[in-house]
């Protein structure tokens, strides 16, 4: 089976949105998709067949205090407004096509991190319900600026990027042996270690998350090596930006948002023939 693997990166995910909009518009289909953080909250639009939606709602609501920002953080404990961004917006304002999502045969997976263990949790989202939207929210819930999300089985979850930033190895383990991987950091990027004391102080209530963040650079760089090895073996095709994306993790500058999205579109157009050939050889 072939798959699409989408890294996270908060608003760097607009690059991913540009890439997948090009692939969607060209009719490229995958057997399965797995997304992390912004890779899941933006990538779900592939299964609902809604190119352009990610950029549209981000441009419209990026300055709305209900969507994201300091006001939301101070009033709710969440930088991104939980109810507005994951329930009101997709169900009422820029409507997510639930019928198409649920009828499309592509499997859709997302990654969260268990707050108590610091380990990744993989969730297959087949239906759009209040519970599954909370899993989607949990996948993109960054530590420190977001409260842990209690999902329907009672566990507390945070951002999947804490424990499995590029879930190519997991996807291969469940049968997706040829994968297109969309990255939001440029080729040659390596993550540097974060101050141990800082994460242990900030996340002292959740020591497993603190330890995962302390060692995250080791996990991430090991995954970069794995992706490179799979690409060399012909099992993966990687799409990545040519440069560090000129956007913050949290961004309200519409010009920057459009620019990063267009960078993704351009990367998608350049990669499209290679993607089509890669998948035709599956």
Structure description:
The protein has 282 residues and is α/β, with parallel strands linked by helices. The chain is built from twelve helices and eight strands. Strands 1, 2, 3, 4, 5, 6, 7 and 8 form an eight-stranded mixed sheet that branches. A hairpin with a 5-residue loop joins strand 5 and strand 6. Helix 1 runs parallel beside helix 2, helix 1 crosses helix 12 and helix 9 runs antiparallel to helix 10. The chain is globular and about 50 Å long.
Features:
282 residues, alpha/beta, 8 strands, 13% strand
SSE layout:
Layout: E1 2-6, H1 13-25, E2 32-36, H2 38-47, H3 53-61, H4 70-76, H5 82-93, H6 98-103, E3 107-114, E4 120-124, H7 130-139, E5 149-150, E6 156-159, H8 168-173, E7 178-182, H9 196-202, H10 207-214, H11 216-232, E8 236-239, H12 254-280
Parallel strand pairs: 1-2, 1-7, 2-3, 7-8
Antiparallel strand pairs: 3-4, 3-6, 5-6
Helix pairs in contact: 1-2, 1-12, 9-10
Summed up:
The chain is 47% helix and 13% strand. The protein has 12 helices and 8 strands.
Q: Helix proportion of residues, in percent?
A: 40-55%
First-last Cα distance:
7 Å
What are the low-pLDDT stretches, counting only 5+ consecutive residues below 50? none
Basic shape: globular
**Beta strand count:** 8
* Class per helix and strand makeup: alpha/beta
Number of helices: 12
Mean pLDDT: 96
Largest sheet: 8 strands, mixed
């Amino acid at each position: 089976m072939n798959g699409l693997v989408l890294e996270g990166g908060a608003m760097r995910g607009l690059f991913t949105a540009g890439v997948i909009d090009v692939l969607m518009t060209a009719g490229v289909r995958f057997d399965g998709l797995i997304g992390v953080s912004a890779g899941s909250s933006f990538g779900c639009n592939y299964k609902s067949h809604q190119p352009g939606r990610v950029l549209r709602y981000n441009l419209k609501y990026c300055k709305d205090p209900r969507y994201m920002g300091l006001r939301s953080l101070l009033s709710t404990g969440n930088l991104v407004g939980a109810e507005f961004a994951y329930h009101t917006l997709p169900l009422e304002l820029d409507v997510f096509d639930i019928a198409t999502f649920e009828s499309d045969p592509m499997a859709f997976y997302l990654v969260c991190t268990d707050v108590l263990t610091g380990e990744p949790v993989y969730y297959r989202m087949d239906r759009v319900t209040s519970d599954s939207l909370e899993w989607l929210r949990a996948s993109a819930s960054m530590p420190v600026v977001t409260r842990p999300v209690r999902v329907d089985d009672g566990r507390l979850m945070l951002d999947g990027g804490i424990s499995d930033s590029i879930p190519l190895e997991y996807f291969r383990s469940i049968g997706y042996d040829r994968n297109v991987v969309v990255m939001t950091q440029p080729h040659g990027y390596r993550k540097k270690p974060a101050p141990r004391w800082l994460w242990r102080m900030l996340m002292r209530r959740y020591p497993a998350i603190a330890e995962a963040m302390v060692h995250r650079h080791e996990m991430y760089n090991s995954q970069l090596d794995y992706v490179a090895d799979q690409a060399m073996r012909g099992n993966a095709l990687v799409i990545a930006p040519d440069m560090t994306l000129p956007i913050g993790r949290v961004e309200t500058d519409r010009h920057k948002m459009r620019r990063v999205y267009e960078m993704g579109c351009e990367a998608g157009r350049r990669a499209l023939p290679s993607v089509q050939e890669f998948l035709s050889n599956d």
